[in-house]
Amino acid sequence: MTSASLPTIIQGGMGAGVSSWTLANAVARTGQMGVVSGTALDLILARRLQVGDPGGHVRRALGHFPIPEIAQRIIDRYFVEGGKSESKPFKPKPVVGMKHSKQLEELLVASNFVEVYLAKEGHSGPVGINYLEKIQVPNLPSMFGAMLAGVSYVLMGAGIPKAIPGILDKLAAKQAVELKIDVQGAQAGEEFTTKFDPVEFCGGEVPDIKRPDFLAIVSSAPLASMLAKKASGKVNGFIIEGPTAGGHNAPPRGKMQLSVEGEPIYGERDVADLEAIHAIGLPFWLAGSYAEPERVVEAKKMGAAGVQVGTAFAFCNESGLDKAIRDQGIQKSINGEAEVFTDPVASPTGFPFKVLEMDQTHSDQATYEARSRICDLGYLRHAYRKENGKVGWRCPSEPIDDYVRKGGSLEDTVGRKCVCNGLMANIHMGQIQQNGDLEKPLITCGDDVAGIARFLKPGKTSYSALDVIEYLLTDIDSRPIIQTRVVADPVV
């Protein structure tokens, strides 16, 4: 990875399905890095097929999956010609656990392949995929699927991804891999792992795949330094994320203190030491309210290769965010009414979680309390050791009696919200629950949402990913944005 080949702009890997292939494809066509979210892609692919696969994109990508019989099994299982009735619930898929069923493993690999394949289709620009270290169990087959499609970068935050670089090395070498899983209550000497074998999955012959570059998403110089020195393989760079960035934030250093409004208070200790990060000698990008041309210039002057931008892209035309939500977010920005609350307890991960306040969404506490608690997706569940030594699963957002019965603390459930179902509703794939209620959105974005109206051109009520990039690079280069080599018409 040479400085000349590095993108100035990395499009953020936002909430499940928001950083969709359509968005990543549009960004990568400009020569900047398009990024797809790797969260819950198995669920998203299954639901896209159930709503009829508009445009036929999923089935087209599955047609290029190197194991055709797996692709056909997935289509046979989930595809609904013309789409399911809006009043009918989505068909469930297997919930992720310590050991994957064959059906789930095939869905994980294929869905990650599909998302990256479509993001790369028709151009030669760079495409990355973003995973959460906190969601550990699906990551091995997911990364393999992305690598089968030729992903250029793997990005990971929301934890300490020390083991991932070495896993990428082994997958590229077609070797079996395993990942240690965090299990609450594990006893001294106990180790729990999840495993994946590319040879077994492919039935003996694995296609040639390349090792993508690995970018760790961190918030401090000490963590960046530790990963550079002690990770299991090569770390190729860092994204330095500040507390104004959307989604999950690193908690403040030291004891958690809250403002009068109930938000975590960040201070001097939470500002990354960029001189120390620069001294590591690896490329880095700055994230969190950097969506201004002068801030891009500032980042480069501080030694960064560029910036990562999320919220600006979340509300552009190509985003996977539901159009009604995008339109309402832009209007709120125009009216000066866009407000984000950094909720210290909403997410079951324990990380502070930024939520856009909007009517008829679960940002409103009364609206959320009217919801029947259910944990039917399970991506953010915690693994815990049962008395018999086996692994169980619990989520602070599940029914309270269930959580407590599994040994969880009652106080852990206070204020917790179902992020999994909320994120699906954000992309117009909310489930109809057994009581007939349609899951409502829980919209996450960064503080920058207040100013997204600046991307609108005169007389327009929406904007494109290209509009954002042109705006950001205004002071970098006065020349027009150069599109990357297009080898096919856009298929978005």
Written account of the structure:
The chain is α/β, with parallel strands linked by helices. It has a single domain (about 5-335, about 450-470), classed as Alpha-Beta Barrel (TIM Barrel). It is built from 17 helices and 14 strands. It has helices at about 20-30, 40-50, 55-60, 70-80, 100-120, 140-150, 165-170, 200, 220-230, 275-280, 295-300, 310-315, 325-335, 365-370, 400-405, 420-425, 465-470, and strands spanning about 10, 35, 125-130, 155, 175-180, 195, 215-220, 235-240, 285, 305-310, 340-345, 355, 380-385, 390-395. The strands form 4 sheets. The chain has an 8-stranded parallel beta sheet. α9 runs parallel beside α10. The chain is globular. The two termini are about 30 Å apart. The relative contact order is 0.15.
Question: Which short descriptors sum up this protein?
Answer:
single chain, 492 residues, alpha/beta, TIM Barrel, eight-stranded parallel β-sheet, two-stranded antiparallel ribbon, 17 helices, globular, disordered C terminus
